Protein backbone atom coordinates (compact mmCIF):
# COMPACT_ATOMS: atom_id res chain seq x y z
CA UNK A 1 0.00 0.00 0.00
CA UNK A 2 1.40 3.39 -0.90
CA UNK A 3 0.94 6.42 1.22
CA UNK A 4 0.69 9.89 -0.23
CA UNK A 5 3.77 11.75 0.88
CA UNK A 6 2.74 14.50 3.20
CA UNK A 7 3.77 15.44 6.68
CA UNK A 8 0.60 14.53 8.57
CA UNK A 9 1.26 13.24 12.05
CA UNK A 10 -1.99 11.30 12.30
CA UNK A 11 -4.08 10.00 9.44
CA UNK A 12 -7.56 8.62 9.92
CA UNK A 13 -8.84 6.46 7.09
CA UNK A 14 -12.45 5.30 6.67
CA UNK A 15 -12.83 4.94 10.39
CA UNK A 16 -16.07 3.45 11.68
CA UNK A 17 -16.75 3.57 15.41
CA UNK A 18 -19.34 1.34 17.04
CA UNK A 19 -20.44 0.07 20.41
CA UNK A 20 -21.45 -3.54 19.74
CA UNK A 21 -24.05 -3.14 16.99
CA UNK A 22 -24.66 0.56 17.51
CA UNK A 23 -22.69 2.61 15.00
CA UNK A 24 -21.62 5.98 16.37
CA UNK A 25 -19.84 7.39 13.34
CA UNK A 26 -18.79 5.94 10.01
CA UNK A 27 -16.40 6.77 7.15
CA UNK A 28 -14.25 9.30 8.93
CA UNK A 29 -11.21 10.36 6.90
CA UNK A 30 -9.01 13.28 7.85
CA UNK A 31 -5.40 14.24 8.54
CA UNK A 32 -3.78 16.01 11.46
CA UNK A 33 -0.65 17.98 10.68
CA UNK A 34 2.24 18.70 13.06
CA UNK A 35 1.66 21.71 15.31
CA UNK A 36 -2.01 21.81 14.42
CA UNK A 37 -4.54 22.60 17.06
CA UNK A 38 -7.05 20.19 15.69
CA UNK A 39 -10.60 20.56 16.93
CA UNK A 40 -13.04 17.68 17.04
CA UNK A 41 -16.41 19.38 17.16
CA UNK A 42 -20.06 18.47 16.87
CA UNK A 43 -23.27 18.43 18.86
CA UNK A 44 -23.71 16.56 22.10
CA UNK A 45 -23.64 12.80 21.78
CA UNK A 46 -22.15 12.68 18.29
CA UNK A 47 -19.12 10.64 19.33
CA UNK A 48 -16.41 13.26 19.84
CA UNK A 49 -15.01 11.67 22.97
CA UNK A 50 -15.37 8.22 21.41
CA UNK A 51 -13.23 9.38 18.50
CA UNK A 52 -10.61 10.57 20.96
CA UNK A 53 -10.59 7.13 22.59
CA UNK A 54 -9.54 5.66 19.26
CA UNK A 55 -6.38 7.78 19.31
CA UNK A 56 -5.33 6.93 22.85
CA UNK A 57 -5.77 3.19 22.78
CA UNK A 58 -8.99 2.87 24.74
CA UNK A 59 -11.36 1.83 21.96
CA UNK A 60 -10.70 -0.29 18.93
CA UNK A 61 -12.15 0.79 15.57
CA UNK A 62 -14.99 -1.29 14.14
CA UNK A 63 -13.49 -0.68 10.68
CA UNK A 64 -10.87 1.54 9.11
CA UNK A 65 -7.47 2.64 10.34
CA UNK A 66 -5.78 5.17 12.55
CA UNK A 67 -2.24 5.82 11.33
CA UNK A 68 0.48 7.49 13.39
CA UNK A 69 3.63 8.77 11.75
CA UNK A 70 6.62 7.08 13.25
CA UNK A 71 10.30 7.46 12.45
CA UNK A 72 10.96 3.81 13.16
CA UNK A 73 8.25 2.57 10.87
CA UNK A 74 10.14 3.18 7.63
CA UNK A 75 11.14 -0.04 5.99
CA UNK A 76 8.11 -2.20 6.69
CA UNK A 77 6.41 -1.42 3.42
CA UNK A 78 8.10 1.85 2.56
CA UNK A 79 5.52 3.63 4.66
CA UNK A 80 6.41 5.91 7.51
CA UNK A 81 3.04 5.33 9.15
CA UNK A 82 2.11 2.76 11.75
CA UNK A 83 -1.39 1.38 11.94
CA UNK A 84 -2.11 2.15 15.57
CA UNK A 85 -4.50 -0.74 16.15
CA UNK A 86 -2.83 -3.42 14.02
CA UNK A 87 0.70 -3.08 15.29
CA UNK A 88 2.10 -5.07 18.22
CA UNK A 89 1.21 -4.05 21.76
CA UNK A 90 4.74 -2.92 22.50
CA UNK A 91 4.78 -0.57 19.49
CA UNK A 92 1.38 0.80 20.42
CA UNK A 93 2.66 1.38 23.93
CA UNK A 94 5.63 3.26 22.50
CA UNK A 95 3.31 5.39 20.37
CA UNK A 96 1.12 6.13 23.36
CA UNK A 97 4.08 7.37 25.32
CA UNK A 98 4.48 10.13 22.74
CA UNK A 99 0.98 11.27 23.69
CA UNK A 100 -0.40 13.12 26.66
CA UNK A 101 -4.06 12.99 27.56
CA UNK A 102 -6.22 15.41 29.50
CA UNK A 103 -9.47 13.73 30.48
CA UNK A 104 -12.81 15.45 30.80
CA UNK A 105 -12.76 15.25 34.60
CA UNK A 106 -9.01 15.67 34.90
CA UNK A 107 -8.73 12.03 36.02
CA UNK A 108 -5.97 12.83 38.47
CA UNK A 109 -5.09 9.85 40.64
CA UNK A 110 -6.99 10.64 43.77
CA UNK A 111 -4.67 8.84 46.18
CA UNK A 112 -1.65 10.93 45.14
CA UNK A 113 -0.72 14.56 45.53
CA UNK A 114 -0.43 16.75 42.43
CA UNK A 115 3.35 16.42 42.45
CA UNK A 116 3.11 12.63 42.78
CA UNK A 117 0.62 12.55 39.91
CA UNK A 118 3.18 14.15 37.64
CA UNK A 119 6.11 12.28 39.14
CA UNK A 120 4.60 8.82 38.59
CA UNK A 121 4.97 8.68 34.77
CA UNK A 122 8.40 10.32 35.06
CA UNK A 123 9.50 7.71 37.57
CA UNK A 124 8.13 4.87 35.47
CA UNK A 125 9.51 5.83 32.07
CA UNK A 126 12.64 7.88 32.67
CA UNK A 127 15.91 7.33 34.52
CA UNK A 128 15.80 10.66 36.30
CA UNK A 129 16.81 10.89 39.92
CA UNK A 130 14.05 11.50 42.47
CA UNK A 131 15.19 15.08 43.05
CA UNK A 132 15.20 15.82 39.29
CA UNK A 133 11.71 14.38 39.09
CA UNK A 134 10.59 16.60 41.94
CA UNK A 135 11.96 19.70 40.22
CA UNK A 136 10.39 18.74 36.90
CA UNK A 137 7.02 18.14 38.55
CA UNK A 138 7.20 21.56 40.18
CA UNK A 139 8.09 23.10 36.84
CA UNK A 140 5.14 21.49 35.06
CA UNK A 141 2.81 22.71 37.79
CA UNK A 142 4.29 26.18 37.52
CA UNK A 143 3.73 26.13 33.74
CA UNK A 144 0.00 25.68 34.29
CA UNK A 145 -0.09 28.28 37.05
CA UNK A 146 -0.21 25.92 40.02
CA UNK A 147 3.13 26.44 41.70
CA UNK A 148 2.86 25.94 45.42
CA UNK A 149 0.16 23.29 45.07
CA UNK A 150 2.60 20.34 44.90
CA UNK A 151 1.37 18.69 48.08
CA UNK A 152 -2.36 19.16 47.57
CA UNK A 153 -4.59 16.19 46.84
CA UNK A 154 -6.93 16.40 43.82
CA UNK A 155 -9.97 16.54 46.11
CA UNK A 156 -8.63 19.66 47.80
CA UNK A 157 -8.52 21.90 44.73
CA UNK A 158 -11.18 23.40 42.47
CA UNK A 159 -12.42 21.96 39.18
CA UNK A 160 -10.50 24.46 37.07
CA UNK A 161 -7.31 23.75 38.96
CA UNK A 162 -7.86 20.03 38.51
CA UNK A 163 -8.10 20.56 34.75
CA UNK A 164 -4.86 22.51 34.75
CA UNK A 165 -3.16 19.92 36.94
CA UNK A 166 -4.40 17.26 34.50
CA UNK A 167 -2.77 19.23 31.71
CA UNK A 168 0.45 19.40 33.70
CA UNK A 169 0.38 15.61 34.05
CA UNK A 170 -0.33 15.24 30.34
CA UNK A 171 2.80 17.32 29.72
CA UNK A 172 4.93 15.18 32.03
CA UNK A 173 6.62 13.03 29.42
CA UNK A 174 7.26 15.86 26.94
CA UNK A 175 4.67 14.55 24.49
CA UNK A 176 4.58 15.56 20.83
CA UNK A 177 0.85 14.99 20.79
CA UNK A 178 -1.66 16.18 23.34
CA UNK A 179 -5.25 15.02 23.43
CA UNK A 180 -7.63 17.20 25.40
CA UNK A 181 -11.18 16.10 26.13
CA UNK A 182 -13.38 19.17 26.66
CA UNK A 183 -10.68 21.21 28.39
CA UNK A 184 -12.86 24.24 29.05
CA UNK A 185 -16.10 22.48 29.98
CA UNK A 186 -17.26 23.57 33.40
CA UNK A 187 -14.80 26.47 33.62
CA UNK A 188 -15.76 30.10 33.96
CA UNK A 189 -15.08 32.26 30.89
CA UNK A 190 -11.88 33.77 32.28
CA UNK A 191 -10.39 30.40 33.28
CA UNK A 192 -11.42 28.97 29.92
CA UNK A 193 -9.70 31.84 28.18
CA UNK A 194 -6.56 31.33 30.27
CA UNK A 195 -6.54 27.66 29.35
CA UNK A 196 -6.84 28.56 25.65
CA UNK A 197 -3.91 30.96 25.95
CA UNK A 198 -1.94 28.27 27.72
CA UNK A 199 -2.63 25.81 24.89
CA UNK A 200 -1.44 28.33 22.30
CA UNK A 201 1.70 29.08 24.29
CA UNK A 202 2.51 25.42 24.72
CA UNK A 203 2.05 24.84 21.01
CA UNK A 204 4.29 27.78 20.11
CA UNK A 205 6.98 27.08 22.67
CA UNK A 206 7.07 23.30 22.91
CA UNK A 207 5.96 22.58 19.36
CA UNK A 208 3.27 20.08 20.41
CA UNK A 209 0.33 19.09 18.28
CA UNK A 210 -3.04 19.34 20.00
CA UNK A 211 -6.20 17.38 19.35
CA UNK A 212 -9.00 19.05 21.24
CA UNK A 213 -12.56 17.83 21.72
CA UNK A 214 -14.76 20.82 22.41
CA UNK A 215 -17.95 22.58 21.53
CA UNK A 216 -17.06 25.91 23.05
CA UNK A 217 -17.27 28.25 20.05
CA UNK A 218 -15.01 30.85 21.60
CA UNK A 219 -12.25 28.27 22.02
CA UNK A 220 -12.81 26.80 18.59
CA UNK A 221 -12.19 30.12 16.88
CA UNK A 222 -9.47 31.27 19.25
CA UNK A 223 -7.18 28.27 19.05
CA UNK A 224 -8.32 25.93 16.27
CA UNK A 225 -6.54 25.94 12.94
CA UNK A 226 -7.97 22.67 11.69
CA UNK A 227 -11.03 20.69 12.61
CA UNK A 228 -13.44 17.92 11.83
CA UNK A 229 -17.18 18.22 12.32
CA UNK A 230 -19.09 15.11 13.39
CA UNK A 231 -22.81 15.00 12.80
CA UNK A 232 -25.06 12.91 15.03
CA UNK A 233 -27.94 12.63 12.54
CA UNK A 234 -26.07 11.47 9.45
CA UNK A 235 -23.56 9.60 11.67
CA UNK A 236 -20.57 10.80 9.70
CA UNK A 237 -18.26 13.79 9.35
CA UNK A 238 -19.63 16.73 7.46
CA UNK A 239 -16.44 18.61 6.86
CA UNK A 240 -12.84 19.16 7.85
CA UNK A 241 -10.78 22.35 7.73
CA UNK A 242 -10.00 25.56 9.56
CA UNK A 243 -13.04 26.55 11.61
CA UNK A 244 -12.47 30.23 10.81
CA UNK A 245 -12.94 29.44 7.10
CA UNK A 246 -15.75 26.96 7.65
CA UNK A 247 -17.92 29.52 9.38
CA UNK A 248 -18.43 31.42 6.15
CA UNK A 249 -17.47 28.98 3.40
CA UNK A 250 -18.73 25.60 4.43
CA UNK A 251 -21.28 24.02 2.13
CA UNK A 252 -23.07 22.29 4.95
CA UNK A 253 -25.72 24.36 6.65
CA UNK A 254 -25.47 22.27 9.82
CA UNK A 255 -21.83 23.24 10.23
CA UNK A 256 -22.49 26.94 9.59
CA UNK A 257 -25.39 26.85 12.01
CA UNK A 258 -23.23 25.19 14.64
CA UNK A 259 -20.43 27.73 14.26
CA UNK A 260 -22.79 30.70 14.39
CA UNK A 261 -25.09 29.35 17.11
CA UNK A 262 -27.84 29.09 14.51
CA UNK A 263 -27.90 32.83 13.97
CA UNK A 264 -26.16 33.27 10.63
CA UNK A 265 -25.38 31.00 7.71
CA UNK B 1 -60.58 30.09 44.43
CA UNK B 2 -61.93 27.33 42.23
CA UNK B 3 -59.77 24.48 40.89
CA UNK B 4 -59.57 23.26 37.31
CA UNK B 5 -62.90 23.43 35.57
CA UNK B 6 -63.93 22.48 32.09
CA UNK B 7 -66.98 22.33 29.97
CA UNK B 8 -67.57 20.70 26.59
CA UNK B 9 -69.99 22.34 24.20
CA UNK B 10 -71.17 20.59 21.08
CA UNK B 11 -72.20 23.09 18.49
CA UNK B 12 -72.46 21.59 15.03
CA UNK B 13 -69.85 19.10 13.84
CA UNK B 14 -66.81 20.09 15.94
CA UNK B 15 -67.17 20.44 19.68
CA UNK B 16 -65.45 23.01 21.82
CA UNK B 17 -63.67 22.53 25.13
CA UNK B 18 -63.62 25.51 27.48
CA UNK B 19 -61.11 25.55 30.28
CA UNK B 20 -61.47 27.87 33.23
CA UNK B 21 -60.14 28.32 36.72
CA UNK B 22 -56.71 27.27 37.94
CA UNK B 23 -54.62 24.74 36.01
CA UNK B 24 -51.55 24.12 38.09
CA UNK B 25 -49.75 21.03 39.40
CA UNK B 26 -51.47 21.43 42.76
CA UNK B 27 -54.91 20.95 41.22
CA UNK B 28 -56.84 17.74 40.79
CA UNK B 29 -54.95 15.56 38.34
CA UNK B 30 -57.93 13.41 37.50
CA UNK B 31 -59.51 16.26 35.57
CA UNK B 32 -56.84 15.96 32.89
CA UNK B 33 -57.46 12.23 32.52
CA UNK B 34 -61.19 12.68 32.24
CA UNK B 35 -60.70 15.33 29.54
CA UNK B 36 -58.50 12.92 27.59
CA UNK B 37 -61.13 10.22 27.99
CA UNK B 38 -63.82 12.56 26.72
CA UNK B 39 -61.62 13.45 23.78
CA UNK B 40 -61.09 9.81 22.88
CA UNK B 41 -64.83 9.13 22.95
CA UNK B 42 -65.95 12.29 21.23
CA UNK B 43 -63.20 14.46 19.74
CA UNK B 44 -63.57 18.19 19.85
CA UNK B 45 -62.04 20.64 17.38
CA UNK B 46 -61.14 23.68 19.44
CA UNK B 47 -59.94 24.37 22.94
CA UNK B 48 -60.68 27.74 24.48
CA UNK B 49 -58.42 28.98 27.22
CA UNK B 50 -59.87 32.44 27.61
CA UNK B 51 -60.95 32.11 31.20
CA UNK B 52 -57.91 30.39 32.66
CA UNK B 53 -56.78 32.16 35.80
CA UNK B 54 -53.50 30.42 36.57
CA UNK B 55 -51.45 27.86 34.72
CA UNK B 56 -48.12 26.09 34.69
CA UNK B 57 -46.51 23.28 32.75
CA UNK B 58 -49.14 20.77 33.84
CA UNK B 59 -51.54 22.61 31.51
CA UNK B 60 -48.97 22.51 28.70
CA UNK B 61 -48.53 18.80 29.30
CA UNK B 62 -52.29 18.24 29.01
CA UNK B 63 -52.49 20.23 25.77
CA UNK B 64 -49.50 18.34 24.36
CA UNK B 65 -51.14 15.02 25.11
CA UNK B 66 -54.36 16.16 23.50
CA UNK B 67 -52.43 17.38 20.49
CA UNK B 68 -50.58 14.08 20.12
CA UNK B 69 -53.84 12.20 20.45
CA UNK B 70 -55.35 14.39 17.72
CA UNK B 71 -52.38 13.84 15.45
CA UNK B 72 -52.65 10.10 15.80
CA UNK B 73 -56.22 10.30 14.57
CA UNK B 74 -55.47 12.87 11.86
CA UNK B 75 -57.71 15.42 13.53
CA UNK B 76 -56.96 19.09 13.74
CA UNK B 77 -57.04 20.78 17.09
CA UNK B 78 -57.21 24.57 17.44
CA UNK B 79 -56.09 26.46 20.48
CA UNK B 80 -58.09 29.59 21.15
CA UNK B 81 -57.45 32.56 23.38
CA UNK B 82 -54.71 30.84 25.40
CA UNK B 83 -52.13 32.97 27.21
CA UNK B 84 -49.18 33.62 24.92
CA UNK B 85 -46.80 31.74 27.25
CA UNK B 86 -48.76 28.50 26.95
CA UNK B 87 -48.59 28.60 23.16
CA UNK B 88 -44.87 29.40 23.19
CA UNK B 89 -44.10 26.48 25.52
CA UNK B 90 -46.23 24.19 23.39
CA UNK B 91 -44.29 25.27 20.33
CA UNK B 92 -41.00 24.71 22.15
CA UNK B 93 -42.02 21.21 23.16
CA UNK B 94 -42.89 20.33 19.59
CA UNK B 95 -39.93 21.90 17.74
CA UNK B 96 -37.41 19.13 18.36
CA UNK B 97 -38.92 15.90 17.07
CA UNK B 98 -38.19 12.75 19.03
CA UNK B 99 -34.96 11.39 17.64
CA UNK B 100 -35.50 8.13 15.86
CA UNK B 101 -34.25 5.21 17.88
CA UNK B 102 -33.76 7.34 20.98
CA UNK B 103 -36.76 5.77 22.71
CA UNK B 104 -35.65 2.85 24.81
CA UNK B 105 -37.03 -0.51 23.87
CA UNK B 106 -39.59 -1.22 26.54
CA UNK B 107 -40.82 -4.47 25.10
CA UNK B 108 -41.90 -7.07 27.64
CA UNK B 109 -39.42 -9.90 27.74
CA UNK B 110 -40.69 -13.43 27.58
CA UNK B 111 -39.52 -15.86 30.25
CA UNK B 112 -37.47 -17.87 27.78
CA UNK B 113 -35.62 -14.88 26.40
CA UNK B 114 -35.00 -13.66 29.95
CA UNK B 115 -33.54 -17.06 30.77
CA UNK B 116 -31.40 -17.00 27.63
CA UNK B 117 -30.13 -13.48 28.34
CA UNK B 118 -29.28 -14.48 31.87
CA UNK B 119 -27.41 -17.56 30.71
CA UNK B 120 -25.42 -15.54 28.19
CA UNK B 121 -24.46 -12.85 30.74
CA UNK B 122 -23.52 -15.49 33.30
CA UNK B 123 -21.41 -17.27 30.72
CA UNK B 124 -19.66 -14.01 29.82
CA UNK B 125 -19.08 -13.23 33.48
CA UNK B 126 -17.54 -16.64 34.03
CA UNK B 127 -15.25 -16.08 31.04
CA UNK B 128 -14.25 -12.65 32.27
CA UNK B 129 -13.51 -14.07 35.71
CA UNK B 130 -11.07 -16.55 34.22
CA UNK B 131 -9.56 -13.83 32.02
CA UNK B 132 -9.02 -11.72 35.09
CA UNK B 133 -7.50 -14.65 36.92
CA UNK B 134 -5.14 -15.20 33.99
CA UNK B 135 -4.24 -11.52 33.91
CA UNK B 136 -3.39 -11.62 37.61
CA UNK B 137 -1.18 -14.65 37.10
CA UNK B 138 0.60 -12.87 34.23
CA UNK B 139 0.97 -9.83 36.42
CA UNK B 140 2.44 -11.95 39.21
CA UNK B 141 4.86 -13.49 36.72
CA UNK B 142 5.95 -9.99 35.70
CA UNK B 143 6.52 -9.24 39.37
CA UNK B 144 8.74 -12.30 39.73
CA UNK B 145 10.79 -11.15 36.76
CA UNK B 146 11.03 -7.73 38.34
CA UNK B 147 9.05 -6.01 35.63
CA UNK B 148 5.81 -5.25 37.42
CA UNK B 149 5.83 -1.99 39.30
CA UNK B 150 3.68 -0.47 41.98
CA UNK B 151 4.35 2.06 44.68
CA UNK B 152 5.73 0.71 47.95
CA UNK B 153 3.63 3.27 49.82
CA UNK B 154 0.49 1.84 48.23
CA UNK B 155 1.38 -1.67 49.37
CA UNK B 156 2.13 -0.38 52.87
CA UNK B 157 -1.21 1.44 53.07
CA UNK B 158 -3.13 -1.60 51.86
CA UNK B 159 -1.25 -3.88 54.26
CA UNK B 160 -2.13 -1.70 57.21
CA UNK B 161 -5.70 -1.41 55.99
CA UNK B 162 -6.17 -5.15 55.59
CA UNK B 163 -4.18 -6.22 58.63
CA UNK B 164 -3.95 -4.18 61.84
CA UNK B 165 -7.08 -2.20 61.12
CA UNK B 166 -9.13 -5.38 60.79
CA UNK B 167 -8.00 -6.67 64.18
CA UNK B 168 -10.83 -5.26 66.33
CA UNK B 169 -13.62 -6.84 64.32
CA UNK B 170 -11.73 -10.11 63.92
CA UNK B 171 -11.15 -10.15 67.69
CA UNK B 172 -14.81 -9.60 68.48
CA UNK B 173 -16.12 -12.16 66.02
CA UNK B 174 -13.65 -14.94 66.83
CA UNK B 175 -14.02 -14.63 70.60
CA UNK B 176 -17.79 -14.82 70.18
CA UNK B 177 -17.55 -17.79 67.83
CA UNK B 178 -15.35 -19.56 70.37
CA UNK B 179 -17.88 -18.84 73.13
CA UNK B 180 -20.78 -20.06 70.99
CA UNK B 181 -18.97 -23.28 70.10
CA UNK B 182 -18.15 -23.88 73.76
CA UNK B 183 -21.78 -23.42 74.81
CA UNK B 184 -23.09 -25.70 72.08
CA UNK B 185 -20.54 -28.34 73.00
CA UNK B 186 -21.07 -27.98 76.74
CA UNK B 187 -24.80 -28.61 76.58
CA UNK B 188 -24.34 -31.83 74.62
CA UNK B 189 -21.24 -33.14 76.33
CA UNK B 190 -22.60 -32.54 79.82
CA UNK B 191 -25.10 -35.34 79.23
CA UNK B 192 -22.19 -37.79 79.11
CA UNK B 193 -20.16 -36.04 81.77
CA UNK B 194 -17.51 -35.35 79.17
CA UNK B 195 -17.16 -31.58 79.59
CA UNK B 196 -13.42 -31.77 79.11
CA UNK B 197 -13.99 -32.56 75.43
CA UNK B 198 -15.31 -29.05 74.92
CA UNK B 199 -11.65 -28.12 74.49
CA UNK B 200 -11.32 -30.61 71.63
CA UNK B 201 -14.48 -29.39 69.99
CA UNK B 202 -13.60 -25.70 70.19
CA UNK B 203 -9.98 -26.24 69.24
CA UNK B 204 -10.57 -28.40 66.19
CA UNK B 205 -13.57 -26.46 64.96
CA UNK B 206 -11.78 -23.13 65.29
CA UNK B 207 -8.49 -24.19 63.77
CA UNK B 208 -9.86 -26.27 60.91
CA UNK B 209 -13.00 -24.41 59.93
CA UNK B 210 -14.28 -21.42 61.82
CA UNK B 211 -11.06 -19.42 62.14
CA UNK B 212 -10.35 -19.16 58.44
CA UNK B 213 -13.99 -19.05 57.39
CA UNK B 214 -14.97 -16.26 59.77
CA UNK B 215 -11.90 -14.17 58.87
CA UNK B 216 -12.65 -14.84 55.21
CA UNK B 217 -16.23 -13.65 55.54
CA UNK B 218 -15.20 -10.60 57.58
CA UNK B 219 -12.52 -9.67 55.07
CA UNK B 220 -14.85 -10.22 52.11
CA UNK B 221 -17.33 -7.81 53.65
CA UNK B 222 -14.75 -5.36 54.83
CA UNK B 223 -11.91 -5.39 52.35
CA UNK B 224 -13.43 -6.99 49.25
CA UNK B 225 -16.13 -4.34 49.19
CA UNK B 226 -13.57 -1.59 49.82
CA UNK B 227 -11.41 -2.81 46.92
CA UNK B 228 -14.39 -2.91 44.56
CA UNK B 229 -15.65 0.52 45.60
CA UNK B 230 -12.22 2.10 45.45
CA UNK B 231 -11.30 0.74 42.05
CA UNK B 232 -14.85 1.28 40.75
CA UNK B 233 -14.69 4.95 41.71
CA UNK B 234 -11.36 5.24 39.94
CA UNK B 235 -13.07 3.77 36.88
CA UNK B 236 -15.83 6.41 37.11
CA UNK B 237 -13.18 9.10 37.45
CA UNK B 238 -11.31 7.92 34.31
CA UNK B 239 -8.29 7.29 36.55
CA UNK B 240 -7.93 3.74 35.20
CA UNK B 241 -7.96 5.09 31.64
CA UNK B 242 -5.24 7.51 32.66
CA UNK B 243 -3.06 4.60 33.83
CA UNK B 244 -3.69 2.68 30.63
CA UNK B 245 -2.90 5.55 28.27
CA UNK B 246 0.34 6.21 30.14
CA UNK B 247 1.30 2.60 29.65
CA UNK B 248 1.07 1.74 33.34
CA UNK B 249 -0.77 -1.55 33.74
CA UNK B 250 -3.64 -1.13 36.21
CA UNK B 251 -3.28 -4.87 36.88
CA UNK B 252 0.26 -4.37 38.15
CA UNK B 253 -0.33 -1.05 39.77
CA UNK B 254 -3.68 -1.55 41.51
CA UNK B 255 -4.60 -5.22 41.61
CA UNK B 256 -1.26 -6.85 42.35
CA UNK B 257 -0.51 -4.98 45.61
CA UNK B 258 -4.01 -5.79 46.85
CA UNK B 259 -3.63 -9.50 46.14
CA UNK B 260 -0.20 -9.54 47.78
CA UNK B 261 -1.48 -7.69 50.85
CA UNK B 262 -4.40 -10.07 51.40
CA UNK B 263 -2.30 -13.16 50.75
CA UNK B 264 0.10 -12.03 53.46
CA UNK B 265 -2.54 -10.83 55.92
CA UNK B 266 -5.20 -13.53 55.67
CA UNK B 267 -3.14 -16.39 57.17
CA UNK B 268 -1.90 -14.07 59.93
CA UNK B 269 -5.42 -12.94 60.74
CA UNK B 270 -6.59 -16.53 60.66
CA UNK B 271 -3.91 -17.56 63.15
CA UNK B 272 -4.95 -14.69 65.39
CA UNK B 273 -8.61 -15.70 65.10
CA UNK B 274 -7.73 -19.30 66.01
CA UNK B 275 -6.00 -18.24 69.22
CA UNK B 276 -8.77 -15.88 70.25
CA UNK B 277 -11.49 -18.43 69.48
CA UNK B 278 -9.77 -20.96 71.69
CA UNK B 279 -9.45 -18.34 74.43
CA UNK B 280 -13.18 -17.60 74.09
CA UNK B 281 -13.91 -21.29 74.56
CA UNK B 282 -11.59 -21.39 77.55
CA UNK B 283 -13.40 -18.53 79.25
CA UNK B 284 -16.68 -20.45 79.10
CA UNK B 285 -15.19 -23.79 80.11
CA UNK B 286 -13.41 -22.28 83.07
CA UNK B 287 -16.16 -19.87 84.09
CA UNK B 288 -19.25 -21.99 83.52
CA UNK B 289 -18.03 -25.57 83.70
CA UNK B 290 -15.36 -25.44 86.34
CA UNK B 291 -12.45 -26.71 84.27
CA UNK B 292 -9.03 -25.33 85.12
CA UNK B 293 -7.00 -23.44 82.56
CA UNK B 294 -4.20 -25.99 82.52
CA UNK B 295 -6.65 -28.80 81.93
CA UNK B 296 -8.27 -26.95 79.09
CA UNK B 297 -4.95 -25.95 77.57
CA UNK B 298 -3.50 -29.47 77.82
CA UNK B 299 -6.64 -30.96 76.27
CA UNK B 300 -6.49 -28.45 73.42
CA UNK B 301 -2.84 -29.21 72.74
CA UNK B 302 -3.64 -32.92 72.60
CA UNK B 303 -6.57 -32.43 70.26
CA UNK B 304 -5.14 -29.98 67.75
CA UNK B 305 -2.15 -30.99 65.73
CA UNK B 306 -0.07 -29.33 63.05
CA UNK B 307 -2.17 -30.79 60.21
CA UNK B 308 -5.27 -29.01 61.48
CA UNK B 309 -3.46 -25.72 61.82
CA UNK B 310 -1.84 -25.84 58.41
CA UNK B 311 -5.09 -26.89 56.78
CA UNK B 312 -6.73 -23.74 58.18
CA UNK B 313 -3.83 -21.58 57.07
CA UNK B 314 -3.86 -23.01 53.54
CA UNK B 315 -7.55 -22.23 53.31
CA UNK B 316 -6.96 -18.71 54.62
CA UNK B 317 -4.28 -18.22 51.96
CA UNK B 318 -6.70 -19.31 49.22
CA UNK B 319 -9.50 -17.18 50.64
CA UNK B 320 -7.13 -14.20 50.53
CA UNK B 321 -6.58 -14.69 46.80
CA UNK B 322 -10.31 -15.17 46.22
CA UNK B 323 -11.34 -12.05 48.15
CA UNK B 324 -8.73 -9.86 46.48
CA UNK B 325 -9.60 -11.11 43.01
CA UNK B 326 -13.38 -10.84 43.34
CA UNK B 327 -13.03 -7.39 44.87
CA UNK B 328 -10.60 -6.01 42.31
CA UNK B 329 -12.35 -7.66 39.38
CA UNK B 330 -15.73 -6.20 40.25
CA UNK B 331 -14.09 -2.81 40.64
CA UNK B 332 -12.27 -3.00 37.32
CA UNK B 333 -15.41 -4.15 35.49
CA UNK B 334 -17.59 -1.57 37.20
CA UNK B 335 -19.76 0.70 35.09
CA UNK B 336 -19.32 4.43 35.17
CA UNK B 337 -22.03 5.59 37.53
CA UNK B 338 -22.66 5.82 41.24
CA UNK B 339 -25.09 2.89 41.19
CA UNK B 340 -22.64 0.77 39.19
CA UNK B 341 -20.02 1.25 41.90
CA UNK B 342 -22.60 0.16 44.48
CA UNK B 343 -23.39 -2.91 42.40
CA UNK B 344 -19.70 -3.69 42.08
CA UNK B 345 -19.23 -3.57 45.86
CA UNK B 346 -22.31 -5.73 46.40
CA UNK B 347 -21.31 -8.41 43.95
CA UNK B 348 -17.75 -8.39 45.28
CA UNK B 349 -19.05 -9.30 48.73
CA UNK B 350 -21.61 -11.80 47.47
CA UNK B 351 -19.16 -13.54 45.15
CA UNK B 352 -16.46 -13.51 47.82
CA UNK B 353 -18.67 -15.09 50.48
CA UNK B 354 -20.10 -17.68 48.09
CA UNK B 355 -16.65 -18.68 46.87
CA UNK B 356 -15.39 -18.97 50.44
CA UNK B 357 -18.20 -21.28 51.51
CA UNK B 358 -17.97 -23.39 48.36
CA UNK B 359 -14.21 -23.77 48.62
CA UNK B 360 -14.51 -24.62 52.30
CA UNK B 361 -17.10 -27.27 51.43
CA UNK B 362 -14.80 -28.76 48.80
CA UNK B 363 -11.97 -28.87 51.31
CA UNK B 364 -14.19 -30.64 53.84
CA UNK B 365 -15.09 -33.33 51.28
CA UNK B 366 -11.54 -33.79 50.03
CA UNK B 367 -9.98 -33.96 53.49
CA UNK B 368 -12.56 -36.44 54.73
CA UNK B 369 -11.98 -38.64 51.68
CA UNK B 370 -8.24 -38.48 52.25
CA UNK B 371 -8.72 -39.05 55.94
CA UNK B 372 -6.76 -35.94 56.94
How would you characterize the overall build of this protein?
The complex is a heterodimer of chains A (265) and B (372). Chain A has helices at 48-55, 89-96, 114-125, 130-143, 159-170, 189-206, 217-223, 243-249, 253-259, and strands at residues 10-19, 22-32, 37-42, 63-69, 81-83, 99-102, 177-181, 209-213, 226-231, 236-240. Chain A is of the alpha/beta class and 265 residues long. In chain A, the strands form two sheets. Chain A has a six-stranded mixed sheet with strand order 6-7-8-3-9-10. A four-stranded antiparallel sheet of chain A has the order 2-1-4-5, with helices on one face. Chain B contains twelve helices and four strands. Chain B has helices at 30-41, 57-72, 84-95, 111-144, 152-162, 167-190, 198-236, 239-245, 250-289, 293-303, 306-332, 338-370, and strands at residues 4-9, 15-23, 44-55, 78-80. A four-stranded mixed sheet of chain B has the order 1-2-3-4, with helices on one face. Chain B is elongated and about 105 Å long. The A-B interface holds A 56-58, 93, 96-97, 99, 101, 103-105, 107-111, 120-121, 124-125, 169, 173 and B 149, 151, 154, 233-234, 237-239, 241-248.
